[in-house]
Design a protein that fits this description.
TIM Barrel; eight-stranded parallel β-barrel; three-stranded mixed β-sheet; 44% helix
Length: 363
Amino acid sequence: MSDISQRKAEHLDLCATDDVAFKGKTTLLEQVGLVHEALPEMAVSEVDLSTTFAGKQLSAPVIIAAMTGGTERAEAVNRGLAQVAQELGIGFGFGSMRPLLQDGIATGYQVRDVAPDALVLGNLGVVQAREASTQQIADLVGGTGCDALCVHLNPAMEVIQPEGDDDFRGGLDTLRRLVEGLDVPVIAKETGCGLSRRTAEQIATTGVRSVDVSGAGGTSWVGVETLRARARTRRLGELFWDWGIPTGGSVAQLSGLGLEISATGGLSHGLDVARAIALGATVGGLARRFLMAFNDGGMETARAAAEEVIDELLVACLLTGSRTPEALRAQPVVLGADLQRWVVASSPLARRTLGQARPSGNA
């Protein structure tokens, strides 16, 4: 097994445990209080969850978020989860495609035969994208049939990773070049540390119109790399394990910037997706719940988990009187004190906030 394939296998093993969770930081989505509507004046069947993200129509605003690729185990995981996405009309994301770009390892990156119509998101680090030509990346996207390319920004993870990068210059120019040179949308994505409003404003200048906040509160990728690290970086990793902007805080920060937002990072169920949408997200992405379901019972169990998430979201829409995700984004919310601090005073979200919830939040 190559070094990069070994690293991806180690990531899969670690992410299937609780050992790499944030230690003291949550997503803050539990501090989003959705206002109950006792007279929704609609039937459950009238809730329409259909959504467009990255130019593709989805039956529900749910993404099976980026996890893996480049190993034999990734082959079964990605093909099974991509087929679930196809059957349910939701999105699917590859893990980093660095093994394919740099070493030609194609294992785990071919799913179009089982998911011909699903939204499939590619995934490449900004440093690797900076070093590759636009044509190389276009070939990568075309060869895997991706509908959009996530370019992940992960400086915290990289500086802890034993094999990681330490030069993060040229990121904005790289995004701008890919927006201009690729025939598919480019999505700027974090990997567990969230996007600030300042960063998102800079990203918007490149022509990128979709972002994935991938905030803090779920899997700590600094923690993942800390458990793999040598002495110096292990010490740093322990210190920065909980680094990052909580997922809810990141979505709140980006409110009103006109960007499509995918909320990933620690979402556990459809109610979390609803809370993220109420904050301003377009879609919500879950990774660990689907990975654990697949590990427990393969594709059938993963499909059942995805159906549960969609059903949970549907009920949340009904109970807030929201016929569509767009309507849910316009509903008033009550925010807990910690989350309230992340809201920009001039944003549309600030105008929809009714008050301050208890730290545990409402529904």
